[in-house]
Amino acid sequence: MPLKLTLNRLAENLILESNTPFSSGDFEKTIREKWQQEIPISTLKRLKKKLFTHNYLIEKSTDDFLPIPVALQKIKNLSLSIRLNSFEINKKVFFPGHRLIPFISNEKKEPDLTFLCPEGNEVKKQKLPFLIEDIVPYYQYSSPIHFPDEIKINNRVLEKSSLLVMAWDITHFIHINQLKEGDFLCIKLIDYKKGVFQIQPCLKSEMHIARLKMRSLFVSMETILAKLCTKDSFCAAGLEKQLLCTLYHIDKSLLNIPAFSLVDFIESLTELEIIGCEDGGGKLVSGSKNHLNKSVCEEKPRVSKGVTGSLDKIFQDLKLAFNKDEFVSILYTIMGSDTYKLESVFNILFGGEGKIFNNQNQHEVFYKYLRKLLKKICLDLKQPESKAISALRDETVSIKLSLIEILRFLEKNEVGLKDLPQDLLDKIYDLDHFCRETLCRLADRSAIPNLKFIHDAKLAIKIILPHAAYLEEEVYSQLGFY
What we know:
Largest sheet: 4 strands, mixed
Radius of gyration: 26 Å
Shape: globular
Number of helices: 19
Strand content: 5-15%
Oligomer: single chain
């Protein structure tokens, strides 16, 4: 029996069947004509709101939308290039990862993709374990749905933990075409919805011939993107949609190249840069928009006004490297563990008791809030909690305290964050962003986080622990002023 047509189903069908660009006004008009019944204004607003985040649509200008198949129709003959490195050559496998952007659909998970030989036969694939540090670089810009999430923990040596990743066997390609490090696989899109691609081996000498054409394409793309990125909504769209929209607007003559490489394009950027999205993946923004938004990396003069309105407002006034929710999570950990001493942790957080407050009143009000908070935490700790949640909180608190200790160490040596190498700054920002997001979710013990959040956070923490250890080693031993 066919499903009854609902208003939501009608709207979804209109989106999926669209084969030309349209505006939100066009969308509303068509829905009214098709539905032939009165539709509440609030319902129409809700339906139109979905246009901005729908996987099938790209917002190309204010209230104007481009169906992804329309963009793909223009660039259907453009291949993507995957440069094979020594790791892939030695293992005789390849991992698509972010190198398939923008031709990988968010409707398909990576293990469900199909790659065909030039003869049409399917390339064999198999899930294999690889060290996290070897695999993560291939998925740096991938959206969460494409990022590998099956982890094989090595409890003895966490840094040796592995990710289970779908790998495609390229033994045949390497043998027949005598491929070496630096040679390419050109990937042609066959079916976007089904996730089907065809592979054509390509020697690096062939790709080298077209380097001037590629450079011309990259310059034109960045010029278009620089204009589009003046809109916040476009910056939030994600890398896949941004690039599809740009390639759709590009002069077709510029697309006459052997293949497009996401990695090469990112390396060519001068005015734009790529940053991480809050939900995972990457997005392009203007250089000036790459803010570190109130993270531990934010370096501002501590000019306190003596604000006392709430604990969170006091922390903001003092320009501390944590907010109230993070502070609560930290207290849950140190009060529920014999590992930490309260006084020592407070010295790390506040740089010494009473030294940073604007005046005695702010100092006293802070301790008034603190006493009330500690009483609540002591009562909460008497109630049982999932070991998975408490362990996740404890590990994240450990990383957060480590970051703040690094700040204190840098302050003591009169080194500013602006003086650090960019790669260390990036690591500090990534680690702190994870800590802030996780600790804020774990600050309320009465609200049980959903299983997906716990699963994703546990995976993430196993990945970032080696980076935290590397950061400490670099700051304390390698910067040259210790």
